[in-house]
Amino acid sequence: MSVTDSPAARLQALFEGHRLTPTQRRIAHSMVRRAAEVPFLSSVELAELAGVSQPSVTRFAVALGFDGYPALRRHLREVAPAEPADRPVSANEYQQAVEAEIENLRHLVEALADPGPVREAGRLLAASRPLPVLGLRAAASQAYGFAYFARKVHPDVRLLDEGGTMIQDRIDGAVRAGASALLCFALPRHPREVVDTLAYAKEAGLAVVTVADSAFAPVARHSDLLLPAAVGTGLAFDTACAPMLLGRVLLEAMCDDLPDAQARLEEFDVKAAARGLFED
Length: 280
Known about the structure:
Layout: H1 7-15, H2 22-33, H3 43-50, H4 54-63, H5 69-79, H6 93-111, H7 116-127, E1 131-134, H8 140-150, E2 157-160, H9 167-176, E3 181-186, H10 192-203, E4 207-212, E5 225-228, H11 241-256, H12 261-275
Parallel strand pairs: 1-2, 1-3, 3-4, 4-5
Helix pairs in contact: 1-2, 2-3, 3-4, 7-11, 8-11
């Protein structure tokens, strides 16, 4: 099955072009994550899945151009598999959380069937000198991990993992130094400061590439290129295996557009061996 034939892709196509409220984006995000099951859910079940009210689901269906939720569900059944996919029942909540992350990775595999957006992102990031990398609060570790490895192949990576009044000054400094793009990792709960910072970066002339948990995340309207990778919500704190892996994929794409990337890595290995940095 190609990415354009998957239930998740069909749902994404259905939602595109509609101006959705934050509550409606939440419903849309929940539907994409459980795309194979959604055509068989009642409006009450979908409301429980998304954590919203049943009338919100009805208003959501109307916003998409349907008479109500039953009409939306009939449409989804026409474009979805004939029956929901069989899923093994896990023994406990920890296994269920891991299975949910595996499902998130499967969705990422489907999205990467079209490598065009990632390759375009890699080109933008490789060409930006310097390259600011933004990630606040829950996304700070994702930004740090990307920046750590990116510095081994990119000549000037600037990590923005602390908010406050200085962050716009640091973006201004990057622009003055020649930056043309900014990479942002945006994960829930989405800090307002991240949304404001991306708006400022675009006003400053930067192309914004964003890795976010959903194509309907609040940062979408300030992103030139948004690459979605879902987070797991089965534990007390969200898990972010898919965004982390997508970050590594972006690193690979960036390396493809940095002609001296391999030489830099080899140079680092030689110096690391001479300094005895790592145990064999």
